[in-house]
Specification:
This protein has about 220 residues and is α+β, with helices and mostly antiparallel strands. About 40% of the residues lie in helices and about 15% in strands. The chain is built from eight helices and six strands. The chain has a four-stranded antiparallel β-sheet with strand order 1-2-6-5. A two-stranded antiparallel sheet has the order 3-4.
């Protein structure tokens, strides 16, 4: 029996000098280190093609067996954003008034958050990312692999692309998020992964005075 012979093509690598490699790495780190989660958005419009390119950047992420187990819903409808806010705030009220542990609530105090989420209506776009534990092909289930890991990597690409476009975002997770599958009428094989408002920051937008961990706390050489 002949061995399976998958098709390949030559990888065309980018070529930079050592100095360019060092500069690009430092420049990108400096740029990404400026990214912050924002809860105060402007209602200034963002063109649809910008959102499309951001999402397609996210969809270029690596995934287990190249299954690409994700889908993205870009929501601009004011009516639908209002319904999403109402449903999210219902879940968040339950979280802040019973579901969250005292320790969790204490950790959240530095952000001054509560169950009220006006940004879900103010931001011009909501990107709802779904993960897919399995695909449906001709009504048959086809298993996907490393779904959470793959979706997490794509989400990282998404946040970087948003920041690169000069926009801001927030990784919002009003757990449980089953309402998103229902409101967006998504198929049975999709599970809501992240709810991300995207847009420009409000003029009065502020961020909490927090620090990222130092190099010695996250980087270890061997």
């Amino acid at each position: 029996m002949a061995a399976h012979n998958p098709k390949f093509k030559k990888y065309l690598a980018q070529k930079f000098s050592e100095a360019e490699v060092q500069l690009r790495a430092q420049t990108f780190y400096t740029f990404m280190n400026q990214r912050r989660s924002i809860r105060h958005f402007s209602d200034k419009a963002v063109p649809q093609n910008v959102i499309e390119n951001i999402i397609m950047t996210a969809s270029s992420a690596p995934s287990g067996a190249n299954k690409q187990p994700w889908s993205f819903c870009a929501v601009a409808s004011a009516d639908l954003k209002s319904k999403i806010r109402t449903a999210a705030e219902q879940e968040e009220f339950a979280n802040y008034h019973g579901r969250m542990s005292p320790e969790w609530l204490e950790d959240l105090k530095q952000f001054n958050t509560n169950e009220h989420k006006p940004f879900l209506e103010i931001a011009p776009w909501l990107i709802v990312m779904f993960k897919k534990p399995y695909d449906l092909q001709n009504s048959k289930k086809r298993k996907n692999y490393y779904v959470n890991e793959s979706a997490g990597i794509a989400a990282g690409f998404l946040l970087a692309a948003i920041h690169n476009a000069g926009l801001v975002s927030l990784t919002h997770t009003p757990s449980p998020m089953n309402f998103l599958q229902k409101l967006l009428n998504r198929p049975e094989n999709e599970r809501a992964f992240l709810l991300i408002p995207v847009g420009y920051p409000a003029e009065e937008a502020k961020v909490p005075l927090i620090k990222r961990k130092a190099k010695g706390d996250v980087l270890f050489y061997y």
